[in-house]
Design brief:
This protein is an alpha/beta fold. Helix content is about 35%, strand content about 25%. Strand 19 and strand 20 form a beta hairpin. The chain is globular and about 80 Å long.
Length: about 475
């Protein structure tokens, strides 16, 4: 009986090994076919897959070659954030009165001290929307019996450095919503919507209908022209950080009457101050001084002293909720905020360069070669980033062992019937994540392609065909 049992067990092992080998062989064939496609003639591709339960290798090709990951880099930032900050982490924005209140007058300054909250004023959460925040600020002032501020209204946004744009971000990106920079103060995800109307014929000027919210600080020179009907959104906003003049260039399709594109605030604290000024005026709260930001203190080399303790504060949604939207909607701003937050929590001052060092050091301590994470930002928008598929898979494997993993897994979008993060920048496409096959087999994978030719949609269907082997 014992011999029969051993024979059956041995056959089971052979069958399992044969099945695993068959999957690897199918992947080998599918990947060879993929690489031989004319769209990949001048490209480099990397695919790394392991067994999600055992960690055993299923397939590898170019897994140690550093490639631009685009937004698949967000999984690295996400997992690091869960570990360094904790799923319940929240950003606090404090309110101070610098002086004394006499009757209904504050003899001193009113200060909002920021800690880098990227959700402040965001429309994604019920408690963070702009109108909610503005009304709450007005109410908090009124509850202190203040009807007049005999001093300045200050937004202290110096928790993060003044380099709001990470290294390598390109000029065509940074004026648009997905290229919004991160400051110590964010407002409405540092984004505004611009509504446009086409001309009467191709080549005609395009008219600006409105901006939401209304831009009070910046001026835009409109050079957008009318394109062919159905030509799509080919309009871009060009404006540098901390400047007040920008340019609209490109085309929008003929026949559009309410065409929307979205831009980024060059300096969000300036926009917020204008919105607060309107809110206070509406609430009947006067002010004798100026509306100023931390940048004024840096430029004039003045100190900003806090004589009193904060009397109130806002707290952001928790980190797990931030990570949810970070990955579901691929919000670059959130990734840049998180990297600077790593530095802020470690050193008391948020900078991208310091945050990146912290990320690399963390994963080196977990056994990864830090050269596999040659990164410059937290979102993957920088074309300077180079990451290996091996590193991404190891990070995904690590995440699977943590108690916060369900929140991370839930935040991953679903494409092609698989839970995975996608990534796209110019001539770069990537997918990395998890998949459970019909037979219950679990896989962890990363698939990056750089310098392909042709349309992204065509490439994606070919990448899916390779990943379909895992189903």
């Amino acid at each position: 009986m014992k011999k029969v049992f051993l024979l059956i067990a041995g056959c089971g092992i052979l069958v399992a090994g044969s099945f695993a080998q068959t999957v690897s062989q199918k992947l080998q064939k599918a990947f060879q076919q993929f690489e031989s496609d004319s769209q990949l003639s001048h490209a480099i591709s990397s695919l790394y897959i392991i067994d999600g339960k055992t960690g055993e290798l299923v397939f590898e090709k170019n897994e140690q070659v550093g490639l631009a990951p685009a937004s698949t880099q967000k999984i690295i930032t996400s997992v690091t954030a869960f570990e360094l900050l904790g799923s319940g982490y929240g950003y606090k924005t404090f309110l101070y009165t610098d002086g004394q209140i006499k009757k209904d007058t504050l003899k001193g300054n009113f200060i909002i001290k920021c800690s880098g909250d990227p959700t402040f004023g965001s429309w994604r959460y019920a408690v963070t929307r702009m109108e909610i925040i503005l009304a709450a600020i007005s109410k908090m002032i009124s509850e202190k019996s203040i009807k007049f501020i005999d001093g300045d209204f200050i937004i202290d946004d110096r928790a993060f450095d003044t380099q709001s744009i990470p290294s390598g971000w390109i000029w065509q990106d940074i004026g648009n919503y997905y290229g919004a920079g991160i400051n110590g103060m964010s407002w409405n995800e540092n984004q505004y919507d611009l509504y446009l109307e086409s001309g009467k014929k191709v080549g005609d000027p395009v008219s600006i209908i409105k901006t939401v919210p209304e831009l009070d600080v910046y001026s835009l020179v409109n050079e957008i022209k009318t394109g062919e009907r159905g030509s799509g959104d080919n309009a871009y906003i060009y404006i540098a950080p901390y400047t007040v003049n920008g340019f609209l260039r490109g085309t929008i399709p003929f026949g559009e009457r309410n065409f929307r594109i979205s831009g980024s605030f060059p300096y969000p604290a300036g926009q917020l101050l204008k919105d607060i000024e309107k809110e206070l005026s509406k609430s009947g709260i006067g002010i004798s001084g100026k509306f100023i930001t931390g940048l004024n203190f840096l430029v004039n080399r003045k100190e900003l002293m806090y004589k009193n303790t904060p009397f109130n504060f806002f707290i952001s949604p928790s980190l797990d909720s931030i990570i949810y939207w970070f990955n579901k909607k691929s919000i670059n701003l959130y990734g840049e905020a998180l990297v600077k937050t790593f530095a802020y929590e470690k050193t008391g001052f948020g900078s991208t360069d310091t945050g990146v060092v912290i990320v690399k050091k963390f994963w080196k301590e977990k056994g990864l070669d830090e050269e596999e994470l040659n990164i410059y930002d937290g979102s993957g928008l920088s074309p300077l980033n180079r990451v290996t598929t091996h590193a991404q898979v190891q990070i995904l494997k690590y995440a699977k062992t943590k108690d916060w993993f369900p929140s991370f897994y839930d935040a991953l979008p679903e494409y092609n019937g698989m839970k995975m993060k996608s990534g796209t920048i110019s001539d770069v496409k990537g997918f990395c994540g998890y998949h459970t096959a019909k037979d219950g087999k679990e896989y962890i994978f990363s698939f990056l392609v750089n310098n392909y030719s042709g349309r992204s949609s065509q490439l994606v269907s070919k990448m899916y065909k390779v990943l379909d082997v895992l189903k």
